[in-house]
Amino acid sequence: MDKSIEIRNICKSFGTGENRTQVLKNISLNVQKGKFISLMGASGSGKSTLLYLLGGLDCPDSGEIILSGKDIAHMKDKELSKFRRNELGFVFQFFNLVQNLSVEDNIMLPVLMDGKKPEKYADKLTEILEITGLSDKRKSYPNQLSGGQQQRCAIARAVIYEPGILLADEPTGNLDSKSGDDIMELFRKINKEKGITILMVTHSDKCAAYADRIITLSDGRLSD
Ligand SMILES: Nc1ncnc2c1ncn2[C@@H]1O[C@H](COP(=O)(O)OP(=O)(O)OP(=O)(O)O)[C@@H](O)[C@H]1O
Ligand SMILES: [Mg+2]
Fold first, then answer.
1. Quick check: is 20 in a domain?
2. Is the CB of residue 66 less than 8 Å from the CB of residue 6?
3. How far out from the chain centre does Cα 107 lie?
4. Closest Cα to atom 17, ligand 1: which residue?
5. For ligand 1, which residues put their CB under 6 angstroms from it?
6. How many domains does the chain have?
7. Domain annotation covers residue 56
8. Domain CATH code at residue 136
9. Which of 110, 134, 106, 104 is nearest to 122 (CA)?
10. Residue 26 in domain
11. pLDDT at position 214, please?
12. Is the pLDDT of residue 1 over 70?
C-alpha cells in the first residue's frame, strides 16, 4: 500500500543555550494512505509542534518529512503553498471561520483564494454540505451556528479540495461530548468514503478510539 505520511528521524528544539529544549527526539513514523491515526500525549509534549512540521508551517532541525511521496523540505515556497492548499487539510480547536462570510462562502474560501471559478465546485459544495449535515445552514453565518456546526463547517472547508491528508489539532477540544462524537463520526465517514488519511491530536480517549491506531508522544519520542 502507498505511504501517505513518512517521518524520518525528525529532531526539533526551541530556544538557545541553557533555555534550549529538545521537543522531538529523532522521531520516525509511517502512515499508510487512508489510515486514521490519533496522536496523544501530555500538554507540552510536542503534538502541535509535530503537526506544524507536517503542515510545512515550521521546519525540523533535522530529518525528513515525505507527504504523498513528496519531500516537503525540497519544495520551493510557491510549490509548498500550492501543495499545502491542495494536498493538506487543516482543522483546529478554534474553528477559524471568517465571521462575515456565510457557511457556503467559508467552505469555498480556498477555491476563491486560488482564483478558481466557484461554479466548477458547485456540485462538490453541495456534496460536502450534505456530508457535513449543513445543507440547511448554507446561507447562515458562523455566529448563528452551534460549536459543532462551526467545526463541521471548518472540516468542510478543509476537505473541499479532497486533500490526501487531513491534519487535526484537538478538533473536539472546544466541544461538548455529543458534538465531539458527531465530529468523530464525520471524520470516520470522510476517512472511509473519501480515503483521506487523518492524523488527529486529541486529549480524549473516547475520540482517540475512533482511529485505526493510537500513537503517543512522550519525552520527545513516539510509541504505540
Ligand atoms: N515557537 C515556539 N517557541 C518556543 N517554544 C515552543 C514553540 N512552540 C512550541 N514550543 C514549546 O515546545 C513544547 C511543545 O509544545 P506543543 O505546543 O507542541 O505541545 P502540545 O503537545 O501540542 O501541548 P498541548 O496539548 O497543550 O496543546 C512546549 O514546551 C512549548 O513551550
Ligand atoms: Mg497542542
1. no
2. yes
3. 15
4. 48
5. 14, 21, 23, 41, 43-49
6. 1
7. no
8. 3.40.50.300
9. 104
10. no
11. 98
12. no
Lowest mean pLDDT, pick from 6-10, 63-67, 81-85, 145-149 = 81-85
> Is 162 within the bounds of a domain?
yes
Kindly give the distance from the C-alpha atom of residue 23 to the centroid of ligand 2, in angstroms, as a whole number.
12
Q: How far is CA 101 from the centre of its chain?
A: 22
Can you give the pLDDT at residue 99? 97
Cell numbers found for residue 152: 463541521
In the chain, what is the greatest distance between 2 CA atoms, to the nearest angstrom? 56
Cell of 6: 513518512
Q: What percent of the chain has pLDDT over 70?
A: 100
Residue range of the domain that includes 130: 36-46+76-223
- Grid look-up 486529541 returns 202
> For residues 178 and 204, is the Cβ–Cβ distance under 8 A?
no
Evaluate whether 99 touches 143 at the Cβ level (below 8 Å). yes
Here the cell at position 3 is 505511504
Dist. CA 39 → ligand 2 center (Å): 11
